[in-house]
Amino acid sequence: MRSTERTRLAPAERRGAIVAAALSVLDDGAGDEGAGPPVAAVARRAGISEALVYHYFPTKADLFAAAVATRLAERAERVAGAWAGINGAPAREYMRIAVEAHLDHVAAHPSAWSHTLGTLGSEAAPARAARQAARADYLEAVALHLQPDPRPQRAYALAGHVAVLDGVAHHWVERGLPAHERDPLPTLVIDALQGSLGDWGR
Fold first, then answer.
1. Most buried among 8, 53, 153, 162, by the most CB within 10 A?
2. What pLDDT, in 10s, does the model give residues 66-79?
3. How much is the pTM?
4. What CATH number is attached to the domain comprising 9?
5. What's the rounded Cα separation, in Å, for the pair 119 and 33?
6. Is there a domain that residue 202 lies in?
């Protein structure tokens, strides 16, 4: 029966199911930091063979990159959805909402964040590329809510913002996501950005 069910999935659906299984394994805290989930565990979770996993993802690094890209896309959707409800708000409010959405995403997937997504710089090249693409998309979206500013200071400030946001979120996860410590985090992150920018510009 299982074999029959496998043949019914179109390639895109099968690929999506494998990525979903990988994310589920990561959420359980399995896998080496920066290396992604064990392929054997992903295959078991998806109810398929390891060979079929490798058919869709030639290397473990490719599978991990797809998982990272999917998780970060979910975060981007969360931020965009939150922004949709505050059209025309001041720039600081847009940033507060973005940080809140980011922390919501982290709280929903603490194990994955701690063991993989939060391990900056140690992942394989494909996962690093996925993270860099998501970072560029996020900064492009943020820039839309600020006045145009060609100075290098703007680019440095936004790059620093991402580092602060990821660092604060990861530290919060490592401390066990204490609820009483979350409230001041958005202000901490936003104040750091405002201090770097000098002015929100909008």
1. 53
2. 999 999 999 999 99
3. 0.84
4. 1.10.10
5. 6
6. no
